[in-house]
Amino acid sequence: YNPVNLYASTKEAFENIAKYYTETSNLIFTTIKLNDTFGANDTRNKVFNLWNKIAKSGETLEMSAGEQIIDISYIDDVVLAYEVLITHLGSDQKEDFKSKEFVVTNNEKYSLKELSKLFEEATNTKLSIKWGARLYREREVMIPYNNGEIVPNWKQKYILKEAIKKTIGEN
Predict the structure, then answer these.
(1) Could you give the 3-state DSSP secondary structure of residue 88?
(2) Which of 1, 13, 39, 163 could form a disulfide with 158 if both were Cys (CB 3.0 to 4.6 A apart)?
(3) How far apart are CA 127 and CA 125, in angstroms?
(4) Please, are residues 114 and 47 in contact by the beta-carbon 8 Å criterion?
(5) Using CA atoms, how far apart are residues 138 and 47, in angstroms rounded to an integer?
(6) In the predicted model, is pLDDT for residue 141 greater than 60?
(7) pLDDT, tens digit, for every residue of 108-125?
(8) pLDDT tens digits for range 33-45
(9) β-strands 69-70, 31-34 pairing
């Protein structure tokens, strides 16, 4: 275990607290871990919003070398994963989900630099990015988390290019 930041550390601490309750009560605690997420009406200063902004303004964005692998899931797929898990937790097999860890992951994973090209294709834009102008952050995640199994009976519905089109088209 090697937390990237304090936020990641607090999530791990919460899981340890939950472990106590699952071992001393009938509580069923199940985890879904997410990497990056995106979707319409997301106001966070995340990569697709930054790229959409520079695509419209013509500004140049300074970025790292862009070699980190990105696992980014469309919000509709994330919501569907939670809905499927909730159905499982309401079923006769709910005990099978006690203390289980699941992950929502995109079938398509790209380097940040490759993802920018997919974004350009999906949005029919050209991004002005100066690759390598910034250093990687301290404790930069180069390979996304992928331990844990996929929520049973959940499947990604949207391919990344389609989800980007839906997101940027709705902004």
Answers:
(1) helix
(2) 163
(3) 7
(4) no
(5) 18
(6) yes
(7) 999 999 999 999 999 999
(8) 999 999 999 999 9
(9) unpaired
d(CA 111, CA 69): 4
**pLDDT tens sequence across 10-33:** 998 999 999 999 999 999 999 999
pLDDT for residue 171 is more than 60: no
* CA dist 47 → 5, 69, 82, 83, 116 (Å): 19, 13, 24, 26, 9
Alpha helices in the chain (DSSP H): 6-24, 47-57, 75-89, 112-123, 160-170
State the DSSP string of 30-55: -EEEE-EEE-TT--S--HHHHHHHHH
